[in-house]
Each structure stands twice: as C-alpha cells, then as structure tokens.
Design a protein that fits this description.
alpha+beta
Length: about 150
C-alpha cells in the first residue's frame, strides 16, 4: 500500500524538479532570499511580436484555383445570386462577405473579398459540406448539385 502511495506521489515530486536548458551547463536553482532582502526577481526577455503588415494595411486575398469552380470564383454577390438564388445566410464583417447557399444535398459557403482597396468583393474561396451531417464534400460537385446540373 505504501508503495502505491509513493508511486502516486512521484509525478508531483517530479513537477518540482528543475532541469538545465539545452546548451547550458551547471545546476539550475531557484533564486533564494537573503536575510533582510526579498526574493530576487528573475526577468526573462520576451521576443518582440510585430504584425507582418501595418495595422489597417490592405492585404490582397489569395484566390482559390480549383477545377469546377470557374463559374463561382471571381463572381460578385449579384452573380452568385443569379446562379444559386437568394442566399440562406449573408454575413458582412468589415470588407469581407460570406454567402451561404443550401439545398438538400449540400451547403455551400462562398467567401467574397475585395481584390484591391475599395473594390467590390468577389468570390475568392468556397467551402462545401453535406446538409445531413456537415461532412466535407467535393466543392465542384456541390456547385453542380445546387445549380441542378
């Protein structure tokens, strides 16, 4: 029984152990307080994290290039609605727009981004899933199914 208790406490004791970082030698130890002095603080430099583009700078979208989506990618919202009818969902966030078209076979999410600042958003990315269980499906097949082709 004592062995079981000792073994169950071993992970807690191991968590208290310190290790020497790779490339360093010697023993690692925690700072200790001296009589009359508080425990010294250890400062660790934090690497700078700067955004890759200035805040507010325009980042052009990456455009999906998948066979079978030629009639969707590059279309405006009006062009997509002419093909699929009114969207089930129309979400605008900043300069991005998401249109969702749904039918019995699948749900098609089309993301529209402007190609340049101030331009009308056009479809740059498409995602598709089954209506029944939300598993991914072939995007081009979903487009054809929603068009009734």
């Amino acid at each position: 029984m004592r062995t079981l208790i000792a073994l169950s406490l071993m992970p807690f004791a191991a968590a208290c152990a310190t290790t020497v970082p790779p490339g360093q030698t010697g023993t690692a130890s925690a700072p200790t307080a001296q009589p009359g002095n508080p425990t010294p603080r250890v400062s660790v430099p934090v690497p700078s994290t700067r955004p890759t583009a200035p805040v507010g700078a325009f980042i052009p979208p990456r455009v999906m290039n998948v066979p079978g989506l030629e009639g969707v990618i590059g279309q405006s919202a009006a062009g997509l609605q002419a093909q699929f009818g009114p969207p089930r969902l129309d979400v605008v966030e900043g300069d991005v727009r998401k249109l969702q078209f749904a039918g019995e076979p699948c749900v098609l999410d089309v993301y529209l981004y402007p190609a340049r600042p101030g331009a009308e958003p056009t479809a740059t990315y498409v995602d598709a899933r089954r209506s029944s269980d939300a598993l991914d499906v072939d995007r081009a097949a979903c487009v054809r199914a929603l068009k009734g082709i």
